Amino acid sequence: MNNIIVLLPIIFPFIAAILIWLCNFSRRKRNIFVFIITSLNFIFVYIVFKYFNKEKIHLFVFNEFLDIYFKIDKLTILFAILVSILWIFTTIYAMEYMKHEGKENRFFSFFLTTLGVTLGIAFSGNLITLYLFYELLTLATFPLVIHSDTKEALNSGRKYLIYSFAGATLVLFGMIILFNLTKDLSFLPKGIINNLSNENIKLYTISFITMFLGFSVKAALVPFHSWLPQAMVAPTPVSSLLHAVAVVKSGVFALVRTVYYIYGAEFIRNNESTKYLTIFIIISILMGSFLALHQENLKKRLAYSTISQLGYILLGIILVNRNAFVGAMLHLINHAVIKITLFFCVGAIMYTRGKTEISQIKGIGREMPITLWCFTISSISLIGIPPTNGFVSKWFLAQGSLGEGKILFPAILLFSALLTAMYLLPIITEAFFKREKENPHITNEAPRKMLIPIICITTITVILGLFPNPVLSFIQEIAKELM
């Protein structure tokens, strides 16, 4: 019975997705149904963590390698709660937004499927289980990316599949090498590598590099990033999930599991390959920001911003010290709530005004003041101006860099923050301080179902900046287990 309860947050969305396909719901009934499902799923997640947090479930054991295994630890709790909360807000937002996109039943069916798959990644107790759900994530999100069924969407979807499966192939190659060395793929806080000798260190290094690069595809590490901006052809609720939590953060989560729970902090700290991986991460931070500066399209500017911000998180992971890890995990959360708000605001502008380019939004801050003020608060947070949540996570990343004697890294983070201001502040100035001569500036905000999630998540962003200690303490507990 306990097994069923623990797996309920994963199974429940799958069942609901099937029911949407089978039942001919009216729009209103379907919307209520989806909202109830995502809300109940959050409650299930909470119950599991509260009362069943020591359960370990071997669902299917085919052999030593193929062992479908689930367990709950603090990292699971952190990621699953983030996913569950943001999914509820995206559900409310999508109820309104998807009216003009069409094919709503198909959208919400795969939308719920993706929720179940993402929580499957969170609950995975070993690498093979995570890998299987990681592959399912590609299949579940592909119909969302190509939702419009246009030629552009199909081309973007094709590229997304190619990149994702190529990354998964690298992961599988690394897993096979690792399993031959360890005969174990379980997630343990100090890693699973024991009795490291000069004879097998090269094989361990090859397996680590291939898995790191493979999981980095979904984390949009340069040069594996180009699928992400092209995926902006998807509806805004999909873009929000891709960039804030479902896909890119699943890639980051998988990297955290690989680095700390498979190889362990000691192996990573003493491995020379991390120096070369760090170069790719620094390039991602800077290149993402520079490319964002040159984007006129609002969604694409935010997409390239995501590439840069994910680099911050990857840098914190690869530095392997407590402050850097805390900064990375804080930024995983902070970037999720900030970026989903920014995309929601841009989507509200597109839905209400039909404007997609920066040059088209002159004076729109007077017409949609709540939306644009939420965009402004989130932008300031992403830049990292004190006392926002973005500042808190970047502070710990800088402290972690200095702790490793890497003086260059805080300078890069500061320079990237400057670039972030350069590509976000022009949007704000265009919206508030410029005006069309013939524009009467009649206030016409986004519909309530879109505005409520925007306001709520902006409020969460502010709270995380002013009162970071509860989340910070929880992450510090995780860090103590790992290092």
From TrEMBL:
Residue span(s) of domain NADH:quinone oxidoreductase/Mrp antiporter transmembrane: 124-420
Keyword Transmembrane (UniProt): yes
Keyword Oxidoreductase included in the entry's annotation: yes
Keywords for this protein: Cell membrane, Membrane, Oxidoreductase, Transmembrane, Transmembrane helix
Annotated compartments: Cell membrane; Membrane
Principal location: membrane
InterPro entries associated with the record: ComplexI-like_HydComp (IPR052175), ND/Mrp_TM (IPR001750), Proton_antipo_N (IPR001516)
Topology versus the membrane: Multi-pass membrane protein
Residue intervals passing through the bilayer: 6-25, 32-52, 75-95, 107-125, 160-181, 201-221, 241-263, 275-293, 332-350, 370-387, 407-429, 450-467
Pfam families recorded: Proton_antipo_M, Proton_antipo_N
Top-level lineage group: Bacteria
Domain NADH-Ubiquinone oxidoreductase (complex I) chain 5 N-terminal, chain residue ranges per copy: 66-108
Similarity comment: family membership: Belongs to the CPA3 antiporters (TC 2.A.63) subunit A family.
PANTHER family documented for this protein: HYDROGENASE-4 COMPONENT F, NADH-UBIQUINONE_PLASTOQUINONE
Full protein name: Monovalent cation/H+ antiporter subunit D family protein
Source organism of this protein record: Clostridium mobile
Upper lineage: Bacteria, Bacillati, Bacillota, Clostridia, Eubacteriales
